[in-house]
Amino acid sequence: MSAIIQDNAIVHYEVLGHGKPVVFLHTWIGSWRYWISSMQFVSTRFRAYAVDLWGFGATKKQFTRYSFEGQTGLLDGFIEQMGMQKLTLVGHGLGGVIALYYAAEHPNSIERLMVISFPMGVQSTNSRLQTLSPAESADWLLGNNPPKAESLEDAKKTDHKAIAASLDQYREVNWRQLINSVPVSSIWIHGDNDPAISNPNGDQLDYLPEQAQFLNFTDSGHYPMLDEPDKFNRLLTDFIHLPPEEDPRQLEIKPIWKRRIR
Question: Fewer Cβ within 10 Å of end Cβ, the chain: N or C?
Fold first, then answer.
């Protein structure tokens, strides 16, 4: 277990590998743990970090820190303490929202951005995220994917107020403006069978930035990195290798993996 201290409070993270940094941020249901497979995959060439946000996993539970500003401050402090200059940021659900806030505030720190299961409006989120306990939600969303047992145990550590506070705040967020604040090339991923976040429609996708690629994972629910790990991890590494100035719309997923077209 690795940890740093921010404002006299513990922030838990895990790290694997060496090289340019890749930071993983978890969704409303979970912690750093479900990123293990992706971390192992990219750690052969890169340095992979996964962070528990305030109220999740082994990071401090304190209601006053659960706003988007508080969570973004955690990420900002973590990146500063780790001495990162340029990084790839991978955000899932809640982590995707925080990744967008951070990228908008620190455009010179981010080379590229991957966003998974981003809710395009609070109406896109299933009300069960607020009504179920974190453990019940984990059981609902994780299916039988490993590491389910460990993730369920981590879910029990979640302060439900951290979930509720962010979902309540999201009602006031202009998600279109937030999306258009993205200053770097980005990939947006959604599982076709995601019961927690509804699949965006064509009108909503029109708000994506110019340098953005949207990809559906047809056999995935809320956790594409667990439901279709080979596709997800290959896409992620291909995206990391893509020079920041190149258009991510060159990247594709097909039944037989096809690398980017020149």
Answer: C
